[in-house]
Amino acid sequence: MSGTDRPVLAVLCGEQRPPDMEPIESVASVRYADAGELPSALRGADALFVYDFLSKAVPGAWHAADRLRWLHIASAGVDPVMFPELRDSDVVLTNSRGVFDAAIAEYVLGLVIAFAKDFAGSLRLQQQRTWRHRETERVAGTSALVVGTGPIGRAIARLLRAVGMRVAGAGRSARQADPDFGDVVASDDLARHLPGFDVVVAVAPLTEHTRGMFDAGAFAAMREGARFVNVGRGELVVTADLVSALREGRLSGAALDVFEQEPLPPESPLWTMENVLVSAHMSGDVVGWRNALVELFADNFARWCDGRPLRNVVDKHLGYVPSSR
């Protein structure tokens, strides 16, 4: 962008405004809006910052986007804004790829160790004041398949390798000698490879090809007693099929940070299953994460104002930022 006019920026944020916006406010006309106010904020706006990245408000307000040229979402996943009108428009879409990689990788490593060392069982026994000696498992020497080979998947693979696990990836295309995964298998051929792993980690983006990829067939294909971790999107999983696999003992455990319906309904059986760890869509949300999201957006905003290439441009037909490897 060039010229002397102040750009107009709409920010979808609800009640909680993003922090550290003062530098942007000094050079742009910023309109903060909740879902109901978004159509008004979009009229005449040049750019949209979807800070409330779980909101579903953008498609319904899109009719008012009469001048929009750029949309940035404060998440790595872009599925909340991936609708036909945006996909077919000239509006550039960017995401917050890179902010959550290390934090989510640490979270996954923690879950893998928690299962192996039965921390949940120890906590239950402590609450019952019961002294019960048990044997636990080694993590080193076990295997993990990371389904999703973007930056978050790579960070997960590196940490799991660091504790002695054998790791492979599943992505859009098969390849060998990858620096982080070693072997990468094709996601289209996932069921054939699932039996070879003790832990399966789902971190794939949500697209029309990945929705419901972990269904009854996938869980049946997994090694008996395998564990499943989902830190990607809840809609990657057919929840009823996962519950059945856990109840029938085909899987020995699941750690779930994302769900088809959020918040997870109180009546969901997942809450009370002893072999399930539930968390509230928080695997990447460490202290300072909101500031980091705004810092990335501010850098992209400066690039956009100067006419320089933007970071994290999403291929709107793939549904994610293409990887260079």
UniProtKB/TrEMBL annotation:
GO terms for molecular function: NAD binding; oxidoreductase activity, acting on the CH-OH group of donors, NAD or NADP as acceptor. The keyword Ligase does not apply. Keywords: NAD, Oxidoreductase. Residues 17-314 form the D-isomer specific 2-hydroxyacid dehydrogenase catalytic domain. It comes from the Bacteria. PROSITE patterns: D_2_HYDROXYACID_DH_3. InterPro entries: D-isomer_2_OHA_DH_cat_dom (IPR006139), D-isomer_DH_CS (IPR029753), D-isomer_DH_NAD-bd (IPR006140), NAD(P)-bd_dom_sf (IPR036291). Residues 109-283 form the D-isomer specific 2-hydroxyacid dehydrogenase NAD-binding domain. CDD domains: 2-Hacid_dh_1. It holds the Pfam family 2-Hacid_dh_C. Belongs to the D-isomer specific 2-hydroxyacid dehydrogenase family. This is Phosphoglycerate dehydrogenase-like oxidoreductase. It comes from Saccharomonospora xinjiangensis XJ-54.
